[in-house]
Each structure stands twice: as structure tokens, then as C-alpha cells.
Write a structure and sequence with these properties.
The protein is of the alpha+beta class. The chain has 4 domains: about 130 residues, no CATH class; about 110 residues, no CATH class; about 40 residues, no CATH class; about 120 residues, Trna Endonuclease, Chain: A, domain 1 (3-Layer(aba) Sandwich), CATH 3.40.1350. The chain contains 11 helices and 19 strands. It has a 6-stranded mixed β-sheet with strand order 12-15-16-17-19-18, sandwiched between helices. A hairpin with a 4-residue loop joins strand 6 and strand 7.
């Protein structure tokens, strides 16, 4: 069984002897990871780096995790996990709790195959991220099976002892001239042999050889019995191109995304590498934004508040044309009096030791524009909790023309209580 090497954001790998504060990788794995980073340097979203490569005196080459979390699986089966760097006011930020948090965050992403994972009956803390993703696929296939495998008509040509379908006269004369009792016919068979099912069957067979968890193996065996009459896919690309997306196959959508990842090594982020089997990596900025917006929507009464995400109501300038669209992450409107509250989420660890705590000037310009355009009661920047801020409850910036930008921190391990304090709207 190949090992899993794990770090958190801003953690680093080295290939030299074990050094305190660094995680050691075998030289071969280190080189493969370095090549992967260099190949994908320009592919990350919004110019964010997947990882940084540097040289430190006395240490050597160092690979540091930046901005992205998830898993990179090498073709030899070695796994590299990158977990979020999360602070907790009780200090209980164990790897197990961090993995559970990552799964909860993934479930809030729009247009992703993560929403249906059932974490209550699965020991997430005992799995590496790759096994969690396998589990997600299994859950999706169980949902398909619950509603029944979709069938399709397949045209069959056959020399039969009884007549059915349509007689093929040319072949009847050719093959049955001396056998009048037989009929060379063409007919349709309604069966489970369709591209979607073939791809799922092939994915199950592949994952059965790759999973190391007995629970996953047992469930894959159960599913393979249900897919017993479905042949394997012999051409993944061809079968994916033939998949039908309609209301009859909507249950298949998420499972087929997983199939494409596992069978073709294609991730949701288009990362690639010659020695990489899978690279399932996610920008923490996007995960944080999605998770906070999701929790806020659930926390506020629909009857009292309207919550809009990535709102596009206003432009910075309106004449001669509407240009420079404003897109705050979260806009909350109180239905009773129309008061507006604007929030932006930022995945960044602030610190007392940095000028303005590390808040970017561009972000403050943005918040100023939001207050002016939306006439907002409050504009708030939301950051993850950090232990590098001594007085996190008292940070706000006030301008002479009445704009107040509040800075708030969220404990992601106690997100509901953290946001409850932020969402105090008189």
C-alpha cells in the first residue's frame, strides 16, 4: 500500500533528510510533484499558484502549498493531501476535524458532485481524501440504483428460429435459402447496455482495485452485482460523447463527473501531469465563500431576509455605458424596511504584525464602493479566525463621509455561533 503524505496550507515538502517544520518526500515523488507544479503554473484560477517552489539555505529545494487544497495522486498510488489551515478557539484543529470540515465545505459548491455524500454513516476521519472521493462516487451510484438503472433500445440482427421484428430479405436469402424454418431478422432489445451504465461499470471495476477500505470494497461488490448484465466500456471517450443529458438521466449527472475524473484523470480544475493520475484541487477562496454564503442562507429566515450571492445589481459607472460590474459575495436585504447589508469573504490569515493587519488596499476600495452604491447599513469583510490578531472584535475602519467597514472573523469549527454574532441586524 502506497503512503499518503499530508500537509496543511502553507506547509512545505522537502526531499532532503527530515527537518523540523517540513514534511519529507521521497526524491522521486518530490521530482514528480515539482514537474506537476511547473506544468500547471499558468493554469490555476485567478493567477493563484497551486504550490510554490523555492530554495532555502541549509534546507534545499522546498515545495510550499498555496491557495489550493485537495489531493494529488501519483500513478504509482502515492497520495499527497493538502488540508486547509484552520484556527479554532479551543485548539481542536486536528486532521480528522479538518477533513470533516473540508467535506462540509465541498458539499456547498454549486454544480459539483459533492452534495449527496452522507457523512453520518461514514468514518471520514479514518479516510484519506482519495477514499472520501471514492465514497462520494459510491453514494452517487447507490442513488442511481435506488431509482433504477436506465435502459435503452439496442438494435440486434440475428438468425432466429422464430420470427420477430423486421425480416432482412437480402440476408434471409443469403443465409436461409435452404432453411425455411429460420428467419434472419432485426429487432430492438430494451436493456441496460447504454454508455452511461457502461462507464459506471468500468469506474466501479477500476475503483475496486484502488480502494483500500473494506467498506468501499464491500459496497462496490454490491453495486457490481447489480451491474452484472452491463458490459464494460471499451472506449471511454466514445461513450462519454454518447451520454445523454435529459430529465430521464439527471440522476447520472454527478456520478458521470466522477467517472470522467477516475477513468480519464480529468479533475474539476484542469490540472495535468505525466506522472499524475488525479489532481483534485480546490481554491480555498472559492470554498470559503461558498461555505459562508450557504451557512448564512440557512441561518436567516426567508420571510425576513433576501440573500443574494455574487450580486450584480450595480456597476461602478453607468454612463456612457454600464462598466465595472460590482459583485459583492453576499448582499442581505431586510424585507421589512429594505435595509441592505453587504459582506465579502476573504480567505486570508490576518496578523497584528502586518500593516493594516494584511487587509489589501484593493479590498478596502471595493468595500467603500459597495457602501456608496448599495447605500448599505453595514459593509463587512469576513476572514477565517486566526490566533495572530490580539483584539479580533474591535477592528473597523471609518471614513469622514460616513463609510464604516467592519472586519469580522469566523471560527469554521463553530461557524453557526460565529456567524450568529456577525448577523446581528437591528
Amino acid at each position: 500500500m502506497k503512503p499518503t503524505y499530508r500537509i496543511t496550507e502553507y506547509g512545505s515538502f522537502v526531499a532532503t533528510d527530515s527537518i523540523y517544520g517540513y514534511t519529507k518526500l521521497p526524491q522521486k515523488t518530490f521530482n514528480e510533484l515539482k514537474q506537476f507544479i511547473l506544468m500547471n503554473k499558468d493554469k490555476a484560477d485567478d493567477a493563484l499558484e497551486i504550490m510554490g517552489i523555492s530554495y532555502k539555505k541549509g534546507v534545499g529545494e522546498v515545495i510550499t502549498a498555496k491557495n489550493y487544497v485537495g489531493i494529488i495522486t501519483m500513478k504509482d498510488g502515492t497520495n499527497i493531501e493538502i488540508l486547509p489551515k484552520v484556527c479554532h478557539h479551543t485548539g481542536d484543529n486536528s486532521e480528522e476535524n479538518t477533513k470533516k470540515l473540508l467535506v462540509r465545505m465541498l458539499k456547498t459548491l454549486k454544480k459539483s458532485p459533492y452534495k449527496n455524500i452522507q457523512t453520518t454513516n461514514v468514518n471520514i476521519e479514518k479516510m484519506n481524501i482519495f477514499e472520501i472521493f471514492i465514497r462520494m462516487f459510491i453514494e452517487e451510484v447507490f442513488m442511481i440504483v435506488k431509482h433504477g438503472l436506465k435502459c435503452a433500445y439496442t438494435t440486434v440482427e440475428s438468425n432466429e428460429n422464430s420470427f420477430k421484428g423486421k425480416l432482412l430479405f437480402t440476408k434471409q436469402i443469403k443465409y436461409n435459402f435452404a432453411h425455411k424454418e429460420r428467419s434472419y431478422v432485426e429487432y430492438d432489445v430494451f436493456e441496460t447496455d447504454r454508455p452511461e451504465n457502461r462507464l459506471l461499470k468500468s469506474t466501479l471495476l477500476l475503483l475496486f482495485t484502488q480502494t483500500k477500505l473494506s467498506r468501499n470494497k464491500t459496497d462496490i461488490k454490491t453495486l457490481l452485482n447489480i451491474f452484472a448484465d452491463v458490459p464494460e466500456s471499451v472506449n471511454y471517450t466514445n461513450d462519454f460523447s454518447k451520454c445523454v443529458s435529459d430529465r430521464n438521466t439527471k440522476d447520472y449527472a454527478k456520478a458521470l463527473i466522477w467517472s470522467r475524473i477516475f477513468l480519464e484523470g480529468k479533475s474539476f480544475s484542469s490540472f495535468a501531469g505525466s506522472d499524475i493520475a488525479y489532481a483534485l484541487l480546490f481554491p480555498m477562496e472559492t470554498l470559503f465563500e461558498s461555505y459562508i454564503a450557504n451557512v448564512i442562507k440557512k441561518a436567516l429566515s426567508v420571510d425576513e431576509y433576501e440573500v443574494s450571492t455574487q450580486d450584480r445589481t450595480y456597476y461602478l459607472f453607468n454612463r456612457p455605458n454600464e462598466i465595472f460590474s460590482l459583485r459583492p459575495d453576499i448582499v442581505i436585504t431586510k424585507r421589512s424596511d429594505g435595509r441592505v447589508y453587504v459582506m465579502d469573504t476573504k480567505w486570508k490569515l490576518l496578523s497584528d504584525d502586518i500593516a493594516n493587519y494584511g487587509i489589501s488596499q484593493a479590498d478596502m476600495y471595493q468595500m467603500y464602493a459597495y457602501q456608496k452604491k448599495y447605500g448599505a447599513e453595514d459593509v463587512t469583510l469576513i476572514y477565517p479566525l486566526t490566533d495572530m490578531i490580539s483584539e479580533p472584535d474591535n477592528i473597523e475602519f471609518i471614513s469622514d463621509d460616513g463609510v464604516i467597514v467592519k472586519v469580522k472573523f469566523v471560527d469554521l469549527f463553530d461557524v453557526n455561533n460565529s456567524l450568529r454574532e456577525i448577523l446581528v441586524m437591528e
